[in-house]
User: Fold this.
Amino acid sequence: MESEPSSPQSDAPAGTSPGSSSGSSSGSYSGSISGKGHVVLAATPIGNVGDASARLIGLLETADIVAAEDTRRLHRLVQSLGITVAGRVISYHEHNEAAKTGELLDQVRSGKTLVMVTDAGMPSVSDPGFRLVEAAVADGITVTAAPGPSAVLTALALSGLPTDRFCFEGFLPRKAGERAGRLAELDDESRTMVFFEAPHRLEPMLRALHERFGAARRAAVCRELTKTYEEVIRGDLRELLRWAETSEIRGEIAVVVAGAPKREPGKPEDHVADVNALVAQGMRLKEAVAAVAEDTRVSKRELYAAVLAAR
Assistant:
């Protein structure tokens, strides 16, 4: 699962494991694109190492450079896969990507294949990688992906909530005031929303969701996806908050929340008093009608006519 940035790691030599490669014969990456250097974003398992794709294995074995968010995690992954990273392994994370992006792209321009991996999931999705892609695209360097596990899509699929339209909101701000402000921006969001959260902040997050969206809003907490102790708790926000208050929560977490229910616009005459209240505060009639019509989603023309009829 994509997680919050880990602490910085220094550059490290290529990781190896005892024995010969176990996955290269069927999954080796075929080499560079059109004989030119390029960048490959490679998705890594979010929990279960068995989800590593044959293409990921081939890329790790054959790439000239592997840029890793945490080199120690990369070494553990390749050891679990029973493979050897032949290329140079470079630490590339939130705290050094500004300084190292140019250096990495210089290597790609010289014809090297650069593979970017993060701790789990797809690079650049709530993880390092965006700065690298942005700079590569601006410079005309080819960027492609080896798709694979995604905590966002896995949580969405398991949530039991609508999947036809959704949005990813990442981690909410840690400070209560900033978190409340972000949630206020989502008041009218009708799509299913997916968030990430740390275990120790899950309870205050659910409380903030409860206060902003109401106790009855449906949601799901997805914990330790694809791992041995995977758990998905579904219910309304009231039920999920009670669960969080009485549970010892561990592991990586995704929270999926149903979108806002569709608001019925109502009848224009129901909002005449709202218009008159704004006019009494000094607003011009047409401006007041426009403001109320936009907020209540009624026809501006019909609301204006209803106000005049009531006078």
Q: What stands out?
A: The mean pLDDT is 88.
